[in-house]
Amino acid sequence: AQSVTQLDSQVPVFEEAPVELRCNYSSSVSVYLFWYVQYPNQGLQLLLKYLSGSTLVESINGFEAEFNKSQTSFHLRKPSVHISDTAEYFCAVSLPGRGGSEKLVFGKGTKLTVNP
Amino acid sequence: EPEVTQTPSHQVTQMGQEVILRCVPISNHLYFYWYRQILGQKVEFLVSFYNNEISEKSEIFDDQFSVERPDGSNFTLKIRSTKLEDSAMYFCASRRGGTVETQYFGPGTRLLVL
To answer: What is the mean pLDDT of residues A29-49?
Structure first.
């Protein structure tokens, strides 16, 4: 069965420090991978996604993630975080569903707290 | 920018009562979803809906749950007789269509069953 593991439930860092949020997946089929972010009192927003092609994908706010098929990982990184990056981050895989519905399977989430 | 909206943001109900959670998906989207997140646990898929019928449902989505798109804009999740373990954050999502199009999520409804 397909699953997603986020190894860290909480990651505290200081402002301007680098951060890596880890994500591993297990799947017997080709996967599409996503990172969603949830800011306090808001819904899940797509941060970035890997579908095919270049294994390094970037978001508009400086995050990047690298798809590593041999290690079945899709870790999220940012070289220098801001206070405003404080949020919960969810890694997910997209699985084909009936009728083209494509459901998402999520990890448990990682709470990133950026301290001044 | 269009967004998925959900009402209410919070709902408190007594065990055994019926609740209806409402969602307005993005207007040109064709696929609709409900997910839930029990406190401290993963976001879990409940059901997908396309072309006015359920495409897929998880084993969580038993006979107590139903979904409906009553008027072409709203998408509702009904829990017929709530249990304590139904307490969770419920997220609605919609997707335009096509392969691996992004799912857009609403802000969620926090349901507390007492």
So the answer is: 87
